[in-house]
Structure formats: C-alpha cells, structure tokens
What does this fold into?
Amino acid sequence: MRLLSDTALAPNPAGGDDLSATRRGFVIGAVMASGALLVGCSPADIMGAGAPKRDFGAFGPFLKFAPDGQITVMNKHQEMGQGNHVGLLAMVAEELDADWSKVGVEASAADAKVYANSLMGIQGTGGSTAIANSWLQYRKVGAAARAMFVQAAAEAWKAPISEIHVKSGVVSHANGKSATFAELLPAAAKIVPPKDPTLKDPKDFTLIGTDRVKRKDSLAKSTGTARYTQDVRLPNMLTAVVAHSPRFGGKLKSFDATAARKVKGVVDVFAIPTGVAVVADGVYAARKGRDALVLTWDDSAAEARSSAELEATYRKIAAGEITPKDDQWTDFASKGEAKDSFEGPDVLHATYDFPYLAHAPMEPMNCVAQVDGSKCKLTYGAQGHSLDQLSAATVVFALPGSIEIETLFAGGSFGRRSSYDSDYVVEAVHVAKHVGGFRPVKLVWTREDDMGGGHYRPMAHHAVSVRVGKDGYPVAWRHRVVVQSFAKGTMLASMMVKKGVDGTTVEGVEGSPYLAATPVVDAKVYTPKSPITTLWWRSVGATHTAPVMEHTVDQLAHRAGIDPVAYRRELYNRAGAKRHLAVLDLATEKAGWGQPLAEGWTRGCAVHESFGSVVANVCEMKLIDGEPKVRRVVVAVDCGVAVTPDQIAAQMEGGACYGLSAALYGKVEIDKGAPVEKNFDSYRVLRHNEAPKVETHILPSANPPSGVGEPGTPVMMASLPNAILAATGKPVSKFPIVSA
It folds into this structure.
C-alpha cells in the first residue's frame, strides 16, 4: 500500500531545516524495520509507530469517569479558540444521556493510531473537520458507555434492558429504582463495551442542536487560568530565540557571537539549520543577545523580487505575454470547445490581484522542547500532531509515535500552527537537542518573527473572460489562475496534488455551480515557484476564488440589468445547486433584500461552498471618506446537523470579521525578498469599532455535520466588493480594497 509518495521524502524546496531525504528516509526505514508497514496498514500506523502502550481503562481512549461522577472526554483535536471541544462533548453527552454540568474535556495524547482524524488519516486539526470527522466516532463512544451502565443496572436489578432508562446521568427503572453513574461505575466498568452500539434517532436529541450547549473554557480563559505555551514554567528551563535570514531563501554564511555572549543572562549561541539560536535565562536576555549578533547571509538562492514585480509577472503570465518554462499551464476544468475568441461586446473581462497575507494569530509561534538522545517531549499548542511528530523524529532519530506531545490551548492559528515542515517546532527540537539532558527550552517567536516568518496565504492573480448569450447568462467561461502552490514538492503532494493540480489553488473555481451552468469552460492554473513560504490560510483557496467567482457574477448581472440575487437563482437552477439556492433565499429574506436602505447604503451578496458547507452572506455597506464601512452582515449556512448552534454563530461572526479585515486591509508587501509588514502597526486589522453586527441563520438539515470554522471567511471577502459595485458601478480588481 502506497502511503507516502517519493516527493514526501524530499526536503522543503524553500529550505529552512535539515529534513533531508536521508534523515526522513532513516525514520521511515526504522518504521519499516519495526514492523509497522504490514499489509493493510494506514498512514496512522506510520505516524504512530513507536507510541507507548496505553491503558485506557474500561471505557476506552475517549472517556474517563471519576468516582464522584465527573466525566472527562478526550479531545483529539486542538482548541485554538474555535470551540470544537464543546461539540465533541455534546455528541458524547447526548448519546450517554449525561448530566451536561458534569462533563468536561481534556486534550488527548498525540497518538495517530488511536486519535487520528478520520478524514486526514493522521492526527491533526484543520480543514474545518473536527466535528465532521468525529460525528459518528464520538457518538458511539457515548452510546457504548450508556449501554454499559444500562446493562450494569439491569443485572443489579434483575430487570430487562428494555425497561431501563437514562436521563441526566441517572439510570432508572419504572419500579422506582434508580442510581447515578457514580454508583453504577464499579459494575459498569466490568461490562465489555459493545462494538456497534445503537445510536439515537436525531428526533430524540435533547442536547445536540440546542442552546444548552455552551463552551466549557470561557471561565478559564477569562480568569487567566487557561494554560498556553507562554505560561509554561518548568524547573531549570531556558528560553531561546532564533535569528532568521531577512530574505526568503537566504542561508547563514557566518556569524560573530562575541558581543551576544557578553549579554547578561545569555547561556549559549549556536547555529541551527534555519539561523542562529540564542539561548538565555529569559526572553529579554535572549532578545538582547540576538540583537548583538553580527550576521552575514548568503542570498544567492534568496528571493530578490518585490511584490510589484511578482504581481506584474503573474499578470503577464495570465495574459499570455510570458510563456512559463519551468512548468506548464494545467487544465483543471474544461468542457465543450472554446472555438470562438473571447473578444467583442458580449464578453466580460475581469482581472483580480491578491497579496500575501499573514495569519497573525494573537499568540505568536512558540514551543517548549525537551530532548535527551532520541527521547523528545514537546509542550505547546499542537495542531498538526502527527506532522510535528514526524518532523521532530527526523531531528532526534526516533520513531514518530515516540515523540511525546502535551497539547495546550493555542491563541489562534487560522492554519499557521499546522505546517507541512513543522518549522517552529523543528527549531525548538534542534535547540533542545543542542542543550541536551532533557532540559526544557522554550522557543519564543516575537510578533516580528511570526508575521515576518512567511507561511503566508499565497499571492494570486485571476484573469477571467466570460461570453454571454442574448439572455445575459454565460455561454463560455475562460479562467486563468496564477498562484503559488505550497503542496507541490513537499510531503503534502501525495494527498493534495491530483493530475498535476494542487487542489487548494483552484478550489472554489473547480466545482463551481457557475461553471456547471456554463456550456463551455476553459480553466487552467499555473503555479510559479518562489522561496517565499506559503501555507493554508483560513479557508485556503476560497480566500481568492470566492471573491473572483462572486464578483464576476455580480458584474455579469449588472451588465445584463438583472438583480444579482435573481441572476444567481437562475444559474443555481441551471446547475441544480439546491443548497446554494436555499441559503441564498434564506439570507436575502432575512436581510430584506430589495427593501430600500438609507441614503448611501448598499447591499452586496455572495454564496460559496467550502469544506462541505454552503454559506450565503449579505452585507450592508456605505462609503465614508472613501473607505467602506460595513454595519450589518446577514449569514445563512447549510452545515449539516447543527451540533452547537451557538458556536456555529460564533464561527460565522469570527469568519466574517476575519474576512472583512483581509478584504479591507490585509497585505504583506515583499521588498526585494524581505517582508515589510511585521507587526500590527503596519499590518492593519479590523478594529472593534469597525466590526459589523453579524446575524447567523442555520438551515435545518439531516445531513452529517460539515465545516464551520472557515466557510464564513470567503463569502465576506466576496460580498463586500459586490456592495461596492452596487454603490459605485465600478468593479473591485485589487485587494486589499483600502490602501495603507
């Protein structure tokens, strides 16, 4: 069974660490030698190889009962502010019929064999999959435990199982006998859990889908008792910072640490594959030591271009003025024959430019590492557990599953904490390995390190030409996308690159109902290379494809003199896109589409599908001193079964504000290969007083849950340009909309 492609063993093309084919090959070879690669094994078997044997107790790896009746559910995912823990708890508690006030959560161990994300095959949080991949798994955990308590009661009371009932953690019989989970615990723990327990009919849910389901971490986070990486204080712990090349792709040539070593508190200074590490007894001393370094960089392989030059090159490639030599255009959506040229009065031409974007979570990257030989422990806000285990294992020459991870809360991520190269985690392991003796070392990235460290949302350019028929609707659609791929040439390629296309570069164009409704489609993508490191960013490819598709459709509607909502309805009917039509109708109804607004205010709408969910967004906007002001956003979402309505609303609100911030202000400018914006003084973000009121309406559904953490972002980035078009009659072609 092929688990990793040949490209999975290749080093990161952008450089930055020593995860070479030799080193990674050693680890994979060790896994094979250990017997993990047996017939029928899975990626989780590789990532979990070397994991210690664990005694999970009578109720299995996801559930623990305390003698006093308190219930703990193990969260295999990362809690980084999105509140996934409460959905997982609700699914277990629903099937268990537990007392909600007695259910709590704990981060699980890092063990892909036990805690793999079923949609990824390895342990990790991303792609808005936490609830979706756990839907049946966590419900079965609760249902199995319930069956054990019911059987224990039936045996104790000598009553038929069919006559035993459970409610709020109390097991009862019609004859008046009752017992709490705590009272039945010793007997229930002796019952063999059923392998395929009976699940509730959704019509019998009393917790899932109700407003009873509230977050369990709010108090701890409000009082400062929640534990983040920066809170970690361990005996004899050191602090480290790393001096990185100012240019992407630059390598260390030489350094002089004489002055740095004289800084009070500095313990050691040494080179690691990504730069120079300064280890000290605290953050202040480490930073002062780094400032005192004399560094010389080799920029021979570094990026030397600036954003303007990159953007101009992308535009020329899309326009056919430059013929790519290193890679060719790749078809990703085509049908019919585009015989006619895309010229004439019946053709709309539109281009769009998108800059690099930083994730900018409130908590910058950090990690506490302890290494002694091949023994390694990591304490931090782990998001990509298995990837980080594999990357750490290549540094200490261990099996991936043997890398111990203690998962803490994370102060935001938006994709940044789970990278294909585990960059900051690998740095921490290198430093701790040099220090040795299992002495804890906390690697700290400053805000400037974090925002200037790359792994951005890629820069992108779209060129679209659409020929319309006499009725004003598309008959031929030509689409060219130029965007960097972060998957090609990395260990992600085997999963994400199909037929030469990195799916994240075109998702949202590929599969669009607008293309389904168009007879002739000619869509190609080109992925240029650059040392600038890029990564998934909240909603990934949809961050640029949604604005392109939705704003193009609005322009077509305006040219045809048709209301944009009515125009979409026709296209959705032609494409058979019933879910899109349903959320569009719900959002526009709730927003009062077509009703008059106060002078100067306009509405824009957008609909987009991502991560299995379809979201419609209607925003109300007014231009004030030339800048858009959004006061109200109405969201309608079809995300399958709404496990936690309150959290779904919170994610739609957060996604709208995150998307609005990026659409208005988000930009990382590159100056001769170096990032310009490195902190919030220059990387402008949405302020509290700029945040709109967001109303969320959830479409009832019996389908399994789908993503909600990301789908609210791209529609906001799309509806705003449409509101501006309605106000000015002029399309938006360049992002961000507001200049710094």
Notes: Residues 130-157 form the longest helix (28 residues). The longest strand covers residues 613-624.
